[in-house]
Amino acid sequence: MTVREIIENAEHKMAEAGIEESYYDSRALWEYATGQDRIAMLLNMNEQVDDGIYSRYMNFVHRRCDRTPLQYITGIQNFMGLDFLTAPGVLIPRYDTETVVSSAIDIIKKKKYTSVLDMCCGSGCIGLTIGHECNINRLVLGDISGQAVSLTEKNADRLDIVCNIVETDMFSGIDGRFDLIISNPPYIRSDVIPTLMPEVKDHEPKLALDGSADGLVFYRRISADAADYLNAGGYLVYEIGNDQGDEVSAIMRKNGFSDVTVLKDLNNNDRAVTGHL
Ligand code: GLN
Fold first, then answer.
1. Would you say the CB of residue 187 lies under 6 angstroms from ligand 1?
2. From ligand 1's centre to the CA of 65, what distance in Å?
3. pLDDT tens digits, 259-274
4. pLDDT for 157
5. For position 50, what pLDDT does the model report?
């Protein structure tokens, strides 16, 4: 069979498995299986394929048809122009989160902030992007998951970002104060999780998604303790679910934050809340 026949056949299988992005994913997995870029793939469309490449590609295609996220197969996800390693057990970086990070970067640059804590860091995409874009003297990333901590360590090494990465249950392992705390905590309501896409509900870690019955437990915990870990006037920046703007704003105000503001992502959904002491 030719490259074209194999890729189109895989695209069809993926579409049958319910994958919306079957066109893109079938090509992305081909590039990953062959190590060739898009141009080489297009130039070789009519070539015959050897058995080794074919079985390597089909192994990836079958995993994708089982709804394993593309990024757990290829091991990589781009986030704000930087490549982050991904790994099963750790949430894959989302484009929605880019809006939250760029809002934080605006605040950090405007206020000339130099110390940042990323609480619930997962792959490290939030804190490490901030470390890459801003002049931060003290960057700390924390997560309760050992798998997240070790993935963040790998990503920090690859991107050459100097930081401390701590395995911690919220603030228990954190010392000192910061100019800004940013967090994308688990925020999905427990009863919503079974309704999510198979890629998310069957393959991504519940620990990183489940925000308890009302989805808000971690906003309450972080907001209650943040004042002990922020400098005077310091900022708290959250990612939120698109229907949590009012509730998270109320939690922040109750804990003494001012100028609490809800920001939208590129899809015009509420996605971030910011406020300061
Ligand atoms: N935005 C993620 C999702 O839709 C959830 C991330 C989180 O709970 N922090 O799957």
1. yes
2. 22
3. 999 999 999 999 999 9
4. 98
5. 94
Mean pLDDT of 56-81: 98
- Ligand 1: does its nearest atom lie under 6 Å from the Cβ of 188? yes
The answer, yes or no, to whether any atom of ligand 1 lies below 6 A from the CB of 203, is no
Distance 209 CA to ligand 1 centre (A): 6
From 99, 184, 193, 201, the mutation candidate for ligand 1 (largest count of ligand atoms within 8 A of CB) is 184
Q: How far is CA 92 from the centre of its chain?
A: 5
Instruction: Compute the chain's Rg from CA coordinates.
Output: 21
Question: Strand, helix or coil at 113?
Answer: coil
104 C-alpha vs ligand 1 centroid, how far in Å? 18
Q: What number does the ligand 1 atom closest to the CA of 187 have? A: 8
- The ligand 1 atom nearest the CA atom of 91: 6
Residues 238-248 pLDDT 10s = 999 999 999 99
Give whole-number Cα distances, 126 to 35, 119, 130, 134, 270, in Å: 28, 10, 6, 12, 18
139 φ/ψ angles, rounded to the nearest 5 degrees: -120, 120
Sign of the Cα pseudo-torsion (187, 74, 23, 125, in order): positive
Grade residue 208 by pLDDT with cuts at 50, 70 and 90: very high
pLDDT in tens, 91-140: 999 999 999 999 999 999 999 999 999 999 999 999 999 999 999 999 99
